[in-house]
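[job 4417] fold queue: 2 targets
>>> target A
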Amino acid sequence: MATRTRMTASERGEQVLRAAVSAFAECGYAATRTDEIARRAGVSQPYVIRLFGTKQNLFRAAQHRVCDRIEEIFRAARAEASPEAAPDEALAALATGYSVFLAERELLQLLLHGFAASADPEIGDQVRARFGGIYHLIRELTGAPETEARRFLSTGMLLTVMSAMRVAGPDAVPATWATEILENLSTEGD
């Protein structure tokens, strides 16, 4: 007879956080209930609260997961590019990396739900700080001037929204307007 191995508190916390990412990505902050997260994680609702304190804390932890992933992708993409790369080449490397994030549908949706939940002061403060941190990271990694970093971030947000609508990316639903936008994106700055 096989024996079950008990998870550590850290492993169980990670399991709850993964379930929260999935639930919040699907339903957003307001519509997601902690008992649904508990069900997905295979634990009790009081245990979820014991681990994270509040639903708000759990949502903030999930938002950190998203931003950490974006930063990880950008750092890895920059590490693969030449150390002497000009800002435009470094931005191109980050753009290639960001396409990895766009394929991670749950994280993409959760990022957008974070923006939507930013009316809550504690969530909004964190989301704004992390988004600003990503902007500064882009500048730091690429040496790009403000205008280029802003254009890069704007294009990334457009692609994020279009990917969430499923008019961009590998599972894109055909839309003439989206094709036109995406074609123009690839020729801007040429």
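>>> target B
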Amino acid sequence: MNASRWLEGLGSLYRGLLRLYPAPFQQRFGAEMTQVFDTLCRQEYTAAGADGALQLGLLALADGLHSVVQQWWIRIFQRRPAMEITSSDLHSGVSPLSPFQAGLAGLPFAAFGLANIVERLLPFPVIAAPPGLLGLAQIVLRSPYLWFGIFCLIGLGIGLAKGFPRWTASYLGWSVLFCWWWSNLAANAERWDEKVWRALPGVVLLAMLLLAVLLRRSWRPLRDILRSLWQDWTLASFAVFTFFAFIFVVYDENHHPLLLLFIGTSALIASAGVWAYFRLKSSIPRVLALAASLLVMAVLSTWSYATWDYRAYYNLPAGPTVEWQTVWTTLVVAAVMLVPALAAWLRRRAHRAAPG
């Protein structure tokens, strides 16, 4: 095989490797890297023959594969998101949101409380909807929970279009939670999990994500989500908070005379905790704000059961007037929520201590 074929084969392999890099990297460095590789291969072929050129090419390809992985990692997890994250995030923590943006983050929690109150005020529950299209229409028109889910999906779509600002995490969490919850809905004494409707909420959520990808003609919306999770580990704590706030606000099977007051107060407390979480700068105080909000809601829940004779309502045997298991469980949950915050704090300390 003559020199030109050797060099042409190595050049083709290297240009194929360059196509694996992120597009901006290819546009900026592709031509220069190809030129340097071709020049070095020609020089090595002249000095050491085909064996030398082959050895150089294999080393360059191996190094290039490692560099491809590194460049994609940087692009997905370390690229600066729009408007909110600064270059010093790993050293100083995530920047707090403005009062308005923090209010946007807390809005789904208040909206869920409102939906729950409206649901309790309906004269006929959705669960009694008739079968067929008529029943489906009634569910769509008369279910405040469904409209709440649509509201969360719209908020998520707006956030994805804007580069996934931090307040969008609230709408993403509620959208995922709503899809899980709604897939277990029962109507007309039939469980939806035996029908195609079980998959419908998840399909709608996936369609929303796919639509964002298509409209922006890139995978950036999904990368924005992954990058936000990597940059702010306390979002894991926020996800735990969202689930337990849902439990505390829904007051399932509760018939306290002041039930609507308990629901509304719990929803406002959850919203206040979220507002403080997104307004504070340091990771540990942020999670402590969420934990405090959960603890207050747990006390409210205990108070609700202590002042309502639920045992007589459900024909249960007599027992203690006040049960504090909910509060103790919430304290354990709060301790678990602090783990990502402590890990983020240790990470920032390590970066501060690193030279340079």
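[job 4417] complete. Note on B: Confidence is low (pLDDT under 50) at residues 79-92, 187-194.
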